[in-house]
Amino acid sequence: DAGVIQSPRHEVTEMGQEVTLRCKPISGHNSLFWYRQTMMRGLELLIYFNNNVPIDDSGMPEDRFSAKMPNASFSTLKIQPSEPRDSAVYFCASSLVANTEAFFGQGTRLTVV
Amino acid sequence: KQEVTQIPAALSVPEGENLVLNCSFTDSAIYNLQWFRQDPGKGLTSLLLIQSSQREQTSGRLNASLDKSSGRSTLYIAASQPGDSATYLCAVRGSGGYQKVTFGTGTKLQVIP
């Protein structure tokens, strides 16, 4: 398996634009996580899906952020409209079940100017 | 709210030295604890996963221990090498309904040849 695949690796966009980040979890994994990493706040869990259903979205900073998982092999994190303070590295991770290791993608480095 | 602290924030040691990284958490109701390493500009690589019922896990030169009652975990690295230089993160999964994962702020390790 190629591991968790995220795209794009880098994204530069202007303030106010819509940004969509994509994630393909490891085949067979039923849990998927979106994280944001910044120097100031470290790694923060944004949202967590189990069997394609959002379980905990308490970490989503505000209504400008939304996440979907239309099927077991694909998830998106959308920011609309984007703001400079959204600049961060966004990671997607997946795990087989709750008590097993989480595997991370390489991340998407987002810069909003 | 679970809080995870890692001390020290940074550590520099000469090659060959044995070292211990610390992770403490405030809520002992955890499902498991996972140690990761992160290289600059990269994603997270899983090192060890300890279930709440376990006391320690070993992989090669790495040994992780867990004392759930005192809210502590340690990562022991034997005979450190320059290739061990990275940021080490611990992550705690809560045992509540949402099983939320909380990351520590990390320890940046530098092993000097």
Description:
The complex is a heterodimer of chains A (113) and B (113). With 113 residues, chain A is mainly β. Helix content of chain A is 0%, strand content 55%. Chain A contains no helices and eleven strands. Chain A has strands at 5-7, 10-13, 19-24, 31-38, 42-50, 53-56, 65-71, 74-79, 88-95, 103-104, 108-112. In chain A, the strands form two sheets. In chain A, strands 2, 4, 5, 6, 9, 10 and 11 form a seven-stranded mixed beta sheet that branches. Chain A has a four-stranded antiparallel beta sheet with strand order 1-3-8-7, with no helix packed on it. The model of chain A has no long low-confidence stretch (mean pLDDT 93). By secondary structure, chain B is mainly beta. Chain B has no helices and eleven strands. Chain B is globular. Chain B starts with a strand and ends with a strand. The interface between A and B is medium-sized, with 23 and 23 residues.
What are the key terms here?
heterodimer; A: 113 residues; mainly beta; 7-stranded mixed beta sheet; 4-stranded antiparallel beta sheet; 55% strand; B: 113 residues; 6-stranded mixed beta sheet; 5-stranded antiparallel beta sheet; 0% helix
Radius of gyration of chain B: 14 Å
The radius of gyration over CA of chain A amounts to 13 Å
Q: What are the low-pLDDT stretches of chain A, counting only 5+ consecutive residues below 50?
A: none
Unreliable segments of chain B (pLDDT under 50, ≥5 consecutive)? none
What percent of residues of chain A are in strands? over 45%
Largest interface: A-B, 23 and 23 residues
- Beta-strand percentage of chain B? over 45%
Put the structure in a nutshell.
Chain A is mainly beta. Chain A contains no helices and 11 strands.
